């Protein structure tokens, strides 16, 4: 049995752990726990800058700018509040068309302002082409009948480097329950 190391992301932060699995992956595909930073600091800063651009575009209600930040793939994912009872209270929206439609619906509903806690924003490298950002924030949003008062959320984004440009592969927005 060959051991291959897999990464796992914890919602309260990013946790790297080793899980032995079977498979035919090569040694080059292995993510070693000894490589604390698979991305150079400059790449991590690039991702943080992209996150700042995302926040700025969101606060301007610039759906087109945000759509362009997403990976152009049917596997691109946005997890957000749903207004369709059939989808449940929160749902995943897959692919560029569904992501664009969802963003346009959110902005058309009125209030949306992101207030990231910049001191707690973290970006980590998962591999040479994948990074993850974790951002606790307050969001004021009226979409789906929500009270537009700022409330706590966590935004977790998986970034994929495509043609030397960091793209959003998945954006997961989670409300933080009251204590």
CATH structural class of the largest domain: Alpha Beta
The CATH topology of the largest domain corresponds to: Nuclear Transport Factor 2, Chain: A
The CATH architecture name of the largest domain reads Roll
> How would a crystallographer describe the biggest sheet?
7 strands, mixed
Q: What value does the average pLDDT take?
A: 82
Q: How many DSSP helices?
A: 3
Number of strands: 9
The termini sit apart by: 45 Å
Output the structural class: alpha+beta
Report Rg: 17 Å
Q: Return the domain count.
A: 2
Helix percent reads 10-25%
The unreliable regions are 1-34
Question: Beta-sheet strand percentage?
Answer: 25-35%
Instruction: Name the helix and strand elements from N-terminus to C-terminus, one letter apiece.
Output: EEHHEEHEEEEE
Q: Which word captures the global form?
A: globular
Concise synopsis of the structure shown:
The protein has helices spanning 41-59, 63-69, 95-108, and strands at 8-10, 13-15, 77-81, 90-94, 112-116, 122-125, 130-141, 151-162, 165-175. With 179 residues, the chain is α+β, with helices and mostly antiparallel strands.
